[in-house]
Structure formats: structure tokens, C-alpha cells
Backbone:
């Protein structure tokens, strides 16, 4: 991709509108949104159009696509759909965020204002680091992780693909969190977390599995 990026944001809801403002804060242009619903950002004071549905997206020169949904699984699925259509994924780092160098951020990553990323951090594709989140040195995140406001990941921790950290959750140094795990708001993780587990409390403990036959939302 040559020239200045022109962002196309997949998701026209609240998170998408936030990303559009982040881009403008960085002096970058937003060409429009992709959305499969009837969301209309213009009703919230943003004069940015919805270009098409996700599966009707036609890439243009200089497009830099960002996924603006908060669920890790949905982020990964939407990114895959857009990749099939030839999307070129950008990166968006708000000017009020801190990212130490060297660190490596994958395509599609978004770093919100007042977030802090330490040195030698590696973020997989499509990670979302929200406001005031802190990531310590030498941390590795898999693809499509979502780190909510004020969450903290300490040095040398490892998170698998699709991990969701709720607001003010904490992962202690050198802890491994398995893929698709969910850490509830305020959870303090002091030991390894299994893939797919849902954790809560301080110290963190796993929610018991739902009774047989219980409908999962």
C-alpha cells in the first residue's frame, strides 16, 4: 500500500465511530464504514458514509481496513471475510498512546488513546488495545485479542489467539493465557489459564461449566 492510508472501518457502531475519531485525531482520512446493519454514524454527528455491506466491499487504492467490533471471535471472522475480498489491513495508533520501540504490531491492530505498550511487545493481527490499557515489556498477544480499558498485562506474559480481557483485569508476569479465554472485569490472573476458560475474581478462578441442556447466549 503506497501513499497515505485512507481508513475503511468495518463496523459502524460505537466502536467504529470511536475509531473514526482516533483516525481524525491522527490527521488521517476515513473513507467510510462497512456494515451489515442499519447503523448510521451520521446520526451521531459524523459525516462519514456507510459504503456497503461487508461482503460487497470493493477495495480502493490506499484503503486501510480496520475491524471495529469488540468480540474477539467476531473480529477474526470479519477480518477473514474481508481478506477474501482483497482487503489491505492498516494499523491505527492514537497520537496520545505510547508504543515503545522495538515492538511489533500486526496488521489491523488498533491502539487507543492513553494506552501504553512496552518494549519488545508482539501483537498478532487485529488486536484492540483500549484506552488506558497497559502492556508490559516482552508480552506476546495472539491474533484478535481485545484488551479492555484499564486492563494490565505484565512482563513476559503470553496470551493466545482471541483472548478477551475485561476492564481492569490483570495478568501477572510470565503467565500464559490460553486461546479464546475470557477474563472478566477486575479479574486478577496469577496462574495459567486454560484455552476457552472464563475466569473471574481475585485470585482468578474458572466459572463452572453450564449444566447440560442450558442454552448459551
Residues:
Amino acid at each position: 500500500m503506497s501513499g497515505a492510508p485512507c481508513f475503511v472501518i468495518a463496523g459502524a457502531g460505537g466502536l467504529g465511530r470511536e475509531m473514526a475519531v482516533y483516525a481524525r485525531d491522527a490527521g488521517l482520512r476515513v473513507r467510510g464504514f462497512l456494515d451489515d446493519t442499519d447503523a448510521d454514524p451520521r446520526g451521531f454527528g459524523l459525516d462519514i458514509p456507510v459504503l456497503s455491506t461487508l461482503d460487497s466491499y470493493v477495495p480502493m487504492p490506499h484503503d486501510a481496513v480496520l475491524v471495529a467490533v469488540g468480540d474477539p471471535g467476531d473480529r477474526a471472522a470479519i477480518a477473514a471475510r474481508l481478506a477474501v475480498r482483497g482487503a489491505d489491513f492498516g494499523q491505527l495508533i492514537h497520537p496520545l498512546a505510547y508504543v515503545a520501540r522495538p515492538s511489533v504490531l500486526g496488521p489491523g491492530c488498533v491502539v487507543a488513546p492513553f494506552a501504553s505498550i512496552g518494549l519488545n511487545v508482539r501483537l498478532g493481527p487485529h488486536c484492540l488495545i483500549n484506552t488506558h490499557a497497559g502492556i508490559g515489556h516482552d508480552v506476546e498477544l495472539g491474533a484478535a485479542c481485545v484488551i479492555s480499558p484499564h486492563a494490565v498485562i505484565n512482563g513476559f506474559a503470553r496470551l493466545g489467539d482471541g483472548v478477551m480481557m475485561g476492564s481492569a483485569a490483570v495478568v501477572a508476569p510470565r503467565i500464559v493465557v490460553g486461546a479464546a479465554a475470557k477474563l472478566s472485569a477486575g479479574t486478577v490472573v496469577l496462574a495459567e489459564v486454560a484455552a476457552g476458560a472464563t475466569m473471574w475474581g481475585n485470585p482468578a478462578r474458572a466459572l463452572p461449566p453450564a449444566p447440560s441442556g442450558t442454552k448459551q447466549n
User: Anything to note?
Assistant: The chain is about 10% helix and 25% strand.
